[in-house]
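Retro notes, structure queue

What went well: the backlog is down to a handful. What didn't: a couple of records were mislabeled last round, so from now on we paste the full input next to the output in the thread. Example, using N-acetyltransferase domain-containing protein from Methylocystis bryophila:
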Amino acid sequence: MTRAAREIEFSGGLLRLRRETEADAAFRFALFCASRPPGEDFSPLGPELAQLLLRQQFRAQIQSYRRDFPRARFDVIEFDGAPVGYIIVDISDTQARIVDLAIVPERRSAGIGEAVIEPLIAEARRRALPLRASVLNGNRGSLRFCRRLGFAPIGEPAALYTEFEWRGA
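Corresponding output:
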């Protein structure tokens, strides 16, 4: 993967992937909030405490990604000049990993996720690397998405996540 912005054609038009910047923080946080797992509802705590907990979770997630994947590429996905998602990818000598992928709710199921992952599949193939992703067990949409793209579970599912590896569609 290069460091420059990249364009990807898909059925809905043209996507642009560019490096995340500090100016993307508000978008990333809003998408983080919109992508919370089923059953995670902080509303009984009141808006101020709920917002505080979500911000803490968001910061902890970003810190853990940067610690665990120091060479990862953090990209914002744009469509028609507006951010519609993000993807975090780490490619090492032993594997390619989709660390995180999120699309704004109103653009899900529009082919954006698939369009962004297809070049990663091609790059992993070219480098003879496994392409892996961990998916929250309660995220049924993402579990279906991975299987549809040719990812298969590897190993035993953990309590919270299932590890997937691309094996072909």
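Agreed that this is the format going forward. Reviewer comment attached to the example: The helical segments are 25-34, 47-68, 112-127, 140-148.
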